[in-house]
Amino acid sequence: VLSFIIFICYIASLAASFMMAPLLEFLLALFLFFAYASKLNEKFKGVHWPLTDFLRCVTAAIIYFAISIAAVSKYNDGASKAAGVFGFAATIVFAVDFYITFNDLVTFLKQGSSDSPEGHKTEDEDSDSDSD
């Protein structure tokens, strides 16, 4: 929702050249929302969903911070200032989401590393079978 509000502010402002970043972020967030809602993350196991969400949060926080600084410092109209203020709020929101998603990603990666492939013998089992 915040990305869509920022997008609308940039359309109405003199800083319309910045409108593409919030639009893409809004569409990406919408896609991931529907992917999780329709259980696509369970159907497509080849995609690392926590990593995808993590990268989205990191890039969104960095991009929103950069374009908010540019919008607030370079443009003087009210819509640009509003977009900048909302952009700083979005930076904080995405930073918090980044922290939460990072913890989920660590848990996801620990689960993947703890699964040992079946059918592989350890060195002790191999040495015991050779002595028989």
Automatic annotation (TrEMBL):
Q: Which PROSITE patterns match?
A: MARVEL
Going by the UniProt record, its keywords in alphabetical order are: Membrane, Transmembrane, Transmembrane helix
UniProt-listed InterPro entries: Marvel, MARVEL-CKLF_proteins
Entry annotated with the keyword Translocase: no
* Topology of this chain in the membrane: Multi-pass membrane protein
Entry keyword annotation includes Protein biosynthesis: no
| Pfam families reported for this sequence | MARVEL (PF01284)
Region spans: Disordered: 111-132
A cellular component term, taken from the record's GO annotations: membrane
Q: What is its main location?
A: membrane
The segment(s) forming the MARVEL domain are 1-106
Name listed for the protein in its UniProt record = CKLF3 protein
* Compartments where found: Membrane
Q: Spell out where the chain crosses the membrane.
A: 7-34, 54-72, 84-102
